[in-house]
Amino acid sequence: MVTIADVARHAGVSPSTVSYVLSGKRAISAATRERVEASIKALGYHPHAGARALASSRANVVALVLPLRTDMHVPILLQIAMAIVTAARGHDHDVLLLTNDEGVEGLHRVTRSALVDAVVVMDVELHDPRVPVLRELGLPSVLIGFPADSAGLTCVDLDFAAAAGMCVDHLADLGHTAVALVGPPAGVLERGTGFARRTVAGFEEAAARRGLRAVVRSCEPSHEAVQATAKELVAEHPEVTGLVVHNEPAVPPLLQALRELDVAVPRDMSVVALGPKELAAQVTPAPAMVPIPAEEMGRRAVELLMDKLNGRDVPDATLIPPSLLPGHSTAPPPSRT
Amino acid sequence: MVTIADVARHAGVSPSTVSYVLSGKRAISAATRERVEASIKALGYHPHAGARALASSRANVVALVLPLRTDMHVPILLQIAMAIVTAARGHDHDVLLLTNDEGVEGLHRVTRSALVDAVVVMDVELHDPRVPVLRELGLPSVLIGFPADSAGLTCVDLDFAAAAGMCVDHLADLGHTAVALVGPPAGVLERGTGFARRTVAGFEEAAARRGLRAVVRSCEPSHEAVQATAKELVAEHPEVTGLVVHNEPAVPPLLQALRELDVAVPRDMSVVALGPKELAAQVTPAPAMVPIPAEEMGRRAVELLMDKLNGRDVPDATLIPPSLLPGHSTAPPPSRT
DNA sequence: GTGAAAGCGCTAACAG
DNA sequence: CTGTTAGCGCTTTCAC
């Protein structure tokens, strides 16, 4: 193995000088710096991570706690996770992947053993058992999502309430007067997943503000369930001419179901989706949508973490403002004749 | 921080004794062991990962290289990744997550810096640039998937050829005489993804062996493409009464398309799917399928890695035998009257 | 602007 | 069966 001493010898300097060239923690003459950097390259030197962690008490690794639930939309989860890895690398950190089945104990372990020096927790629930642990962990953490009590925690998420409101506003602006929300499976709501509730709240609030009639439905992602929901909505709420869909896998079968019911999109029914932007390419007509900014969520989470690691103050809540991507799935409501 | 010296003092023994209790590398009297373990628990001691790595030159961390391509079925990727984490934890190892956009350089970095002591590479292509690097890395690695030249490498994968063959045999056993394979998007094949090609080969080989007429189609996952494929197959190959689908997201729209074409499943058309077993619960009729054993793939990969880390010999190729899960999507072909 | 040297916490000889 | 001790490779005072 190539050590810092090898580099020092090769460059004709002391090990500490090599260390300082690497860390930039003190001024080095240009000549020395160049010699050292040349030696580093020539020898293919990479500092030993363990030794560095031991001496500096900084592992330069962040933990990513990633629960795997079947009712979450997995591609988004992975997109966020990968964005976190990429962003962390940009700050010279690596990412250790933790599942939740080791439980809260896993957090204690990687923390106490100084394997990591910060933690990102994904898919946070309202009453998440990991939250109290984070508070007492004594090292920086960022949550993706909001628990019921987020006091003293740093949380990042899309502003789902505003996103739902934006969808409603879009429909209201087009002249719709009755709208429905097709939400995630009931289980997601019951489990107390914050974003699902915030979407519902934002939807209802915006509808009230705009004076629209509003209907809310949960929906399992199976083809049958979606079909049934569509049929019900059309039958029981013929006044509804605009749909907000916050349930990624339901979008293709929903459009299909509407087609079968002879409800043309967007002529008879406008549809706005809340989901990964890839969705737009997968169905016809390409839906108007509020994309879930996975990359930005990951990046912001890491930036907050780095700020905390560097002793900077950070805001408790980071709500990423939504944006509406135009599509071909919305139009003014059919005129009542 | 609680150190090994603190534990030693608390238990009235030397630090090395604590170390040996932890590692089990030499005999310890029951009395001493108990005292030490009690102290460890009492103080909440966790060995410092960096210090341990430095002294033992074993980081107890494996790298997981996870490319994120949109044309791969993401949920399966994540299932395998999580299985790897769980399995690694069972062997007292953690998992460092690497993306591929740091490139091959990332492998060098985590390896040279002794951040990890083994590597798992997922979603291997036939001519994968990571493969030559793995050969020269000088530390244990396992690939999930097979490159074109797997000599000297340790690879794990589902036996896709056998899986496709199993699907064909199932259809042949029911009396079908003409079958079609609806495969993944053309891009996956062109990119040289091994498993896609092995499925096609296994499909054709089995069809030939059983004397069946065989048709092969690539298919994009979009609703329209699937619909077009279904229409084409039915129109151009009316003799085909059995479908093997190796394209997870295409299954729901394919069944839907068949319904629209008045082709009843399984009365007029039998369908066997190759994909995650969760698929069975999502569509009606629940398809007969060969599930992709994500958990087993992850577990086997880690077991092989641990064997290599412990100097044991391991087989080059591990092909996991497929199994056929019964469903309600297959039946004898309609009798020609 | 640079060097010398004292640890960081642990493992693994070596010694008994 | 247990203790003593010399590093592992790096960072960071302290000294010049």
TrEMBL record, chains A, B:
Domain HTH lacI-type: 2-56
Keyword Transport attached: no
Record keywords, A-Z: DNA-binding, Transcription, Transcription regulation
Matching Pfam families: LacI (PF00356), Peripla_BP_3 (PF13377)
Gene Ontology MF: a single term: transcription cis-regulatory region binding
Keyword Transcription regulation: yes
Region Disordered, residue ranges: 316-337
Stored SMART domains: HTH_LACI
Annotated CDD domains: HTH_LacI
Protein name per UniProt: DNA-binding LacI/PurR family transcriptional regulator
